[in-house]
Write a structure and sequence with these properties.
Blueprint: H1 4-148, H2 152-169, H3 171-200, E1 211-215, H4 220-226, H5 231-240, E2 243-245, E3 252-256, H6 260-276, H7 281-310, H8 317-325, E4 330-331, E5 334-335, H9 336-353, H10 358-366, H11 382-392, H12 397-405, H13 415-429, H14 438-453, E6 458-464, E7 469-474, H15 481-498, E8 506-510
Parallel strand pairs: 7-8
Antiparallel strand pairs: 1-3, 2-3, 4-5, 6-7
Helix pairs in contact: 3-9, 5-7, 6-7, 7-8, 9-10, 9-13, 10-12, 10-13, 11-12, 12-13
C-alpha cells in the first residue's frame, strides 16, 4: 500500500503524465492531420497535372488527326484537279482537231462546188459551140455545092487531094509544131496531176521535240526519284537509256533523248512509278521491262492502223512492226509514218490519173521509207536498207525498186518509182511539212562545200541530193590516186566531227587527167 506521501507524489506525477500524454496525442493528431492535408494537396496537384497532361495529349492527337485529314484532303483535291486539268486539255485538243477537220471539209466542199459549176458551164459552152459548128459546116457544104457545081463525092475527093498536097509540103512544120504542143501539154498535164493530188489530200503535221515532260504531284517526289545518293535516277537512266533532268522547275521532270522510242518508254515508266509510289532500283527495272513490252504492242498497232488507213493488206508482220516504229521517227521534225501515209495517198492519186495501178502505187509509197526504221541497225542509207528488207520479205519488184531508187540513182525501170519520187518531193517540200527554212538549207549546203574545199588538192566541191551527197573534184597535178582515197576519208571524218545531220552523207571524190593536143 502506498503511503500518503507516496500518493501525494504519485498523483501529481500521474496527472502530469496524463496531461503530457494528452498533449502528445493532440500533437500527434495535429501532425497526422497536417501530413494528411499535405498528402491530399499533393494528390490533388498530381491529379491536376495528369489531367492537364491528358488534355494536352488529346489536343495534340486531335491536331495530328486534323493535319493528317487535311493533308489527305489536299492530296485528293490536287489529284482531282490534275485529272480535271488533263481532261480539259484533252477536250481542248479534240475540239481543235474537230474544228480543223470541219474547216478542211468546208474548203473541200467549196472546191467541189466550184469545180462542178465550172464543169457544167464548160459542157454547156461545148454543146453550144458544137451546134454552131454543125450549122456552119452545113452552110459551107451547101455554098460549095452551089459555087462549084460538083456533087458531094467529087468535092470531097478534090478537097482531100488538096489537103494531101498541103500536108506533104508542111509535114515537117506540122511535126515540129505538134511535138512542141505535146511537150507543153505533157508538162501542163503533169503539173495539173500533181496539184490535183496535193489538193485532194492534206494531212496535219505535228512537230516532235527531243524532250518529254512528266508531271509530279509535289517537289518531294523529285527527291524520291533521285533516291539515296542518286541510286534511283542512275538505275532509271541505265534501264531506259535516257537523261532525266530535274531542276528548279516546279511540278515537272524532263526526260531527254534523241531516240523517241526510248524516250516514250522512259516517260510511261516514270508516270507509272510516280503513280505507284514505290521507287527503288528493282521496281524500276520491273516497270521499264513491262513498259517496253507494252510499247511493242502499241508499235504493232500503229503499223496495222497505217495499213488499214492506206488499205494495204497481206503485209508481212515484220514490215508492219517497222512501219509502227516510224511513228517514233522524225525527219526535219516531220513524222515519218505520217509522211509515208501521205506519200502513199498522193502516189495513188497520181497513178490513177496516169492510168496506173493506184493500189500498187500506194503500197510503194507506204513502204518507200521503211529503211529509216532500221538504219541504226544496218550500214548504208535508208533506200538501200529498205530495198534489202523488202526483198527479204517477198515484196514485188516495183515496191523494192521504188524504195531503193526514190532519192538518188533514179533509174526509169518502172513508172511507179518516178511516181513515188514525185509524191515524196510533194510531201516533204510543201509548206508546213518540215521545219527547215531556205536560209538554213543553203547554209547547210555551203558548210559541206566549205569544209571540203579546205583540204589540199581540192579544186571544186558540189553538194547534191539535198545535202545527202558531196561530189569533190581533185587536181590531178597535186594529188595521186592514193592521196585521193585519203582525202575522201578525211572529208567524211570531218563531217562526222563538225556537223550534225540525219542519216548519212556520201562523199564521192573524182580525179582525172586530161591530155589535149592539136593536129596541124
Amino acid at each position: 500500500m502506498f503511503t500518503s506521501t507516496q500518493l501525494a507524489i504519485l498523483i501529481p506525477a500521474f496527472i502530469a503524465v496524463a496531461v503530457g500524454a494528452f498533449f502528445l496525442v493532440k500533437m500527434l493528431d495535429r501532425l497526422r492531420r497536417r501530413d494528411a492535408e499535405t498528402e491530399a494537396r499533393e494528390i490533388i496537384r498530381q491529379g491536376k497535372q495528369e489531367a492537364e497532361t491528358l488534355c494536352r495529349r488529346s489536343e495534340l492527337e486531335s491536331k495530328e488527326r486534323e493535319l493528317k485529314l487535311r493533308e489527305e484532303t489536299e492530296k485528293e483535291f490536287r489529284r482531282i484537279r490534275a485529272e480535271l486539268h488533263e481532261r480539259e486539255r484533252l477536250l481542248d485538243k479534240r475540239q481543235d482537231a474537230l474544228e480543223e477537220q470541219a474547216e478542211q471539209l468546208r474548203k473541200q466542199e467549196k472546191m467541189v462546188e466550184s469545180t462542178q459549176r465550172k464543169l457544167t458551164e464548160r459542157i454547156q459552152e461545148a454543146n453550144h459551140r458544137k451546134e454552131e459548128l454543125t450549122k456552119l459546116l452545113d452552110l459551107q457544104r451547101q455554098t460549095l455545092h452551089e459555087l462549084c457545081g460538083l456533087n458531094q463525092e467529087e468535092a470531097t475527093k478534090r478537097l482531100l487531094e488538096l489537103l494531101d498536097q498541103q500536108l506533104q509540103k508542111e509535114t515537117g512544120a506540122v511535126i515540129l509544131k505538134h511535138e512542141k504542143m505535146l511537150a507543153e501539154t505533157c508538162e501542163q498535164k503533169s503539173r495539173e496531176i500533181v496539184l490535183t493530188a496535193i489538193q485532194r489530200y492534206a494531212a496535219p503535221h505535228t512537230a516532235e521535240t527531243t524532250t518529254s515532260t512528266v508531271d509530279i504531284p509535289n517537289d518531294e517526289m523529285k527527291g524520291r526519284i533521285i533516291g539515296r545518293e542518286g541510286r534511283n535516277i542512275r538505275a532509271f537512266e541505265k534501264a531506259t537509256g535516257v537523261d532525266v533532268i530535274i531542276d528548279d522547275t516546279p511540278g515537272v521532270v524532263i526526260v531527254s533523248a534523241f531516240d523517241m522510242i526510248r524516250r516514250e518508254v522512259a516517260r510511261l515508266s516514270l508516270e507509272k512509278l510516280i503513280a505507284d509510289g514505290r521507287i527503288h532500283p528493282a521496281r524500276i527495272e520491273e516497270i521499264v521491262t513491262a513498259t517496253q513490252h507494252e510499247l511493242e504492242r502499241h508499235i504493232q498497232k500503229f503499223g496495222e492502223e497505217a495499213c488499214q488507213e492506206v488499205e494495204i493488206l497481206n503485209l508481212h508482220e515484220r514490215l508492219v512492226n517497222l512501219l509502227g516504229r516510224l511513228h517514233f521517227r522524225t525527219s526535219y521534225s516531220q513524222n515519218v509514218l505520217r509522211h509515208c501515209i501521205e506519200v502513199a495517198f498522193i502516189a495513188g492519186m497520181i497513178a490513177e490519173e496516169l492510168g496506173l495501178n493506184g493500189k500498187l502505187a500506194r503500197r510503194c509509197g507506204l513502204l518507200h521509207d521503211i529503211g529509216k526504221a532500221a538504219d541504226q541497225e544496218a550500214e548504208g542509207g535508208h533506200p538501200k536498207i529498205g530495198g534489202d528488207l523488202l526483198k527479204r520479205y517477198g515484196e514485188r519488184s516495183e515496191v523494192i525498186h521504188a524504195a531503193t531508187c526514190h532519192h538518188d540513182d533514179l533509174r526509169i525501170e518502172n513508172p511507179y518509182t518516178v511516181v513515188v519520187a514525185a509524191a515524196d518531193a510533194c510531201s516533204a517540200s510543201r509548206p508546213g511539212a518540215r521545219r527547215e527554212t531556205l536560209e538554213r538549207y543553203i547554209k547547210r549546203m555551203e558548210e559541206l562545200e566549205t569544209i571540203a574545199a579546205k583540204f589540199p588538192g581540192v579544186d571544186q566541191a558540189y553538194a547534191i541530193q539535198a545535202g545527202r551527197e558531196l561530189r569533190v573534184l581533185l587536181s590531178a597535178k597535186e594529188t595521186t590516186d592514193e592521196s585521193a582515197a585519203k582525202v575522201c576519208h578525211d572529208i567524211a571524218r570531218a563531217f562526222e566531227e563538225q556537223l550534225t545531220y540525219p542519216g548519212e552523207i556520201k562523199v564521192t571524190v573524182l580525179r582525172e587527167t586530161r591530155h589535149v593536143d592539136l593536129a596541124r
